Amino acid sequence: MEEISVPGKRKLLVQESDNNYASANETTNSEPIPKRRSLARTCIHEVAVPKGYTSPTDESTYGTLSDPVYNGNMAKTYPFELDPFQRVSVACLERKESVLVSAHTSAGKTAVAEYAIAMSFRDKQRVIYTSPLKALSNQKYRELSQEFSDVGLMTGDVTIAPNASCLVMTTEILRGMLFRGSEVIKEVAWVIFDEIHYMKDRERGVVWEESIIFLPPAIKMVFLSATMSNATEFAEWICNLHKQPCHVVYTDYRPTPLQHYMFPLGGSGLYLVVDENEQFKEDNFMKLQETFTKTRKQSSGNKGGMKVSARIAKGGTASGVSDIYKIVKMIMERKFQPVIVFSFSRRECEHNAMSMSKLDFNSEEEKDAVEQVFRNAIICLSEEDRSLPAIELMLPLLKRGIAVHHSGLLPIIKELVELLFQEGLVKALFATETFAMGLNMPAKTVVFTSVKKWDGDANRYIGSGEYIQMSGRAGRRGKDERGICVIMIDEECLSRHDGIAAHLERLHSPFGIKGKHRCCDAEGSRGHDASRGQLGMEMKILKEMVLGKPAPLVSTFRLSYYSILNLMSRAEGQFTAEHVIKNSFHQFQYEKALPEVGQRISTLEQEVALLDSSGEAELTEYHKMELELAQLEKKIMSEITRPEKILMYLVPGRLVKVRDGGNDWGWGVVVNVVKKPSTGSSSLPASLASIRSSSAYIVDTLLHCSPGLSESGSRQKPCPPRPGEKGEMHVVPVPLPLISGLSSIRIAIPSDLRPAEARQNILLALQELGNRYPQGLPKLHPVKDMGINEPELVNLVNQIEELEHKIFAHPLRKSGQTESQFKSYQRKAEVNHEIQQLKSKMRESQLKKFRDELKNRSRVLKMLGHIDADGVLQLKGRAACLIDTGDELLVTELMFNGTFNDLDHHQVTALASCFIQCDKSNEEIRLRKELAKPLQQLQDSARRIAQIQRECKLDIDVEEYVESTSRPYLMDVIYCWSKGASFAEVIEMTDIFEGSIIRLARRLGEFLNQLATAAHAVGEATLEKKFQAGSETLRRGIMFANSLYL
């Protein structure tokens, strides 16, 4: 790594004073109204300079490297005074030097990008603007087209004016142009990378990294980013890579300051926890805790009052009004709209919006405007598509000023919502976190329905970077004195057990084995005294989330066959895979961190020496037993839920427990069991049939659901009530694999469940059972009750019972002096694990690691015939070079082994859909006979490729690879659409969101075009025509309706 000079930080301060700034905290009327302190618009400037670099510019006009100031004629003027960070950024651009601009959402980074474009136009140069998503590219194209005359768009789906001076494109398109040596690149002077923090994305981050590496050194770059903690490190990498200066301009200034409140679910009032001066209000946080303590005491003191205790436990009210309803209503009454309500579930977004049925925020004039915009937007659709429920049901909501925004919506509806929101015609928007990206669409208020999200592995608190991004939507510059953030918090987040007590209480038996310290897993019941707990969401966690530093940008660089093959195909040989590895941000960060790693190891070793090690052997033993028990339980439940074993016990009235991914429904009541009829021939490959056989059965179960389900009329799925809601009992169709527990208890159910009162009586009965069995509802024993006598299962049961008795008899269950020991044990294990990881990191050179991986991947390419023994690209490799939407190895294998040859273009299209990532379905995979065999051939080929990779010493799980490269969830849907079915017909074939279906179809169209190009490159004219025909059959109707931004 070359030496890089980094001048010291230069901080610019501009003082602003606002002495008439009042707090929104109305619970402290007796206290003086706080004033907003003088706030400094801080701009920090740094620059990384390559060794030996001399500035060619005139200092009187352009300033110096360490103090860039521009005194010439501006390429673009603005109707407002530029902020300090914008002025410094413009000066860096005029010096013709790269710059990274790091600032909060809504701070004004777009003005810097617009100046770079205007400067390119002035200097008769071309400029490329990249964004991470096609939807954002469309939005940016529309925005820039209103500002500049010569703008084009390239996204793979759409190409507009490809010869324009300013080209907006996705980063994948830019990388493809760089790989192929496009002539356009030779004419480009500037590349703007929007949302550069996307580079840490595990799946797509490598695209940014490779694009930056491959850019010619003469091209200068503008990086726009949310705030990140290691901006200087990134600039040093750019400087080292391209041998050019890279400036960092950073500001943490918010044009509109924020106030952060907490709202206790089931309670009332807002608690100011962080004020507009970023001061944490500890007293208010403690008052918030007290509200839950009072609620618990009320609940425990009213054991005989079922109605009251149920209401308090669920955080509802006597009127049944949900907390989100109360908050939105309060926001509107106080004129704090527009409001964005963020949820981490698409279904929750829809449910929350539908629960606003009694609220109306738009005037008659605004309603007319909404309807006119709506009708104009959907005029491009056919009459049949305009009648879709997903479209018709949205208009009444929009006319009342309420809208939903998430990735599962129809694209045309999502864009319509964005346009109406920008025009002020949507007052309450219920959205997922994806709305926090892209164009500047701020609101006055932002509400978080939760501070925890399911990330695929666990429910975790959102990070400071995520919170900053979403909360940054609060406060409109020039309109609001302050932005308001409201965090909805429930008792489960705020109080929990700490240490070994909670660790022990999480233990539960699938067989109802009794134990003195067993916790209850029945809904609405706890087997512990919550007063023993401490703050779960400690003040430290809240402070880190709201006030903490954003996460650093960490490289996710990886080697891909697509990149290796494209590097081998470059005639000039300028770049090799070795060159890319050496110059990656990943390698740069590794080399820079080595000295710090050694120091960290030393510090951790000193900490270990001071930690208490008494009782460590017992704790280790206990922890090992608990892990072993969890694995055994998982195995036995997968056996018990097989249809031949469980169906006879799923009789009406049986209590069952349901878990759907991150949603724990608790106990429900079986109403009926049905076997879904298969459409056509449901012939599945053996590998899928064994997994999916249970999915053919649906258990109609009476479950506790979020309220308002029956009122929505939408295709949204039911979801469990949040802690702040008074739920309703509904019959929900539950796929058999989602049954996670089987009770020995049966209750009588009414013959007619249509009346709400009849269903609610069942809820009361379930709550009464929870009180009657505080140690947990009794469960059916697999051997004694269900009569399952298979030796393997009996052996599992015996192992579990023996292990549970050991755990219940363990000394840790009888000792009350283990809290500090357990904490010390946990910390010691964490520290030792970190030490081992750091030592391993120091021993193993990252460069050597990637070199070994490159060698192994090259062996795979040789064995599959992509390259010859000398590393020269062969015909198969040339085809794979042109495919980056799906797995390039697998799809070229199908092209060359004849799989596609035997299929018509409808089958080809359906089979190709398996390569596109999509949402998973809980329903049975329905495949007709003409699709089952091609899928089996695809899986056989995938298994062979995975096994070859294992033989070449690549760490890959064969079955995981097969599953990840063959996703048949929408095969039948795409097949029917390709053959002419209507959109209304195909959406009834799956439970996957309409927007997700369209997103897959559009990516599939792009994928088929790539396959046609690949077939043409290797002289396969027949295949080329099939792929082209398949692509054409997709491109009709609402699936490929034009974007409203174009």
From TrEMBL:
Residues annotated as domain Helicase C-terminal: 323-527
Q: Which PROSITE patterns match?
A: EF_HAND_1 (PS00018), HELICASE_ATP_BIND_1 (PS51192), HELICASE_CTER (PS51194)
GO-annotated cellular components: nucleus
Q: Name one GO molecular function term.
A: RNA helicase activity
InterPro entries of this UniProt entry? Beta-barrel_MTR4, DEAD/DEAH_box_helicase_dom, EF_Hand_1_Ca_BS, Helicase_ATP-bd, Helicase_C-like, MTR4-like_stalk, P-loop_NTPase, RNA-DNA_Helicase
According to the entry, every stretch annotated as the Helicase ATP-binding domain falls at 90-246
- Using the record for this protein, list the coiled-coil segments as residue ranges, or answer none: 615-642
KW Nucleotide-binding (keyword) present: yes
Keywords assigned: ATP-binding, Coiled coil, Helicase, Hydrolase, Nucleotide-binding, Nucleus
The places in or outside the cell where this protein is found are: Nucleus
Question: Which Pfam families did the record assign?
Answer: DEAD, DSHCT, Helicase_C, MTR4-like_stalk, MTR4_beta-barrel
GO biological process annotation, one example: RNA catabolic process
Look up the domain of life of the source. Answer: Eukaryota
User: What family, per the record?
Assistant: Belongs to the DExH box helicase family. SKI2 subfamily.
Matches recorded under PANTHER family: ATP-DEPENDENT RNA AND DNA HELICASE, EXOSOME RNA HELICASE MTR4
Q: What is this protein called?
A: DExH-box ATP-dependent RNA helicase DExH10
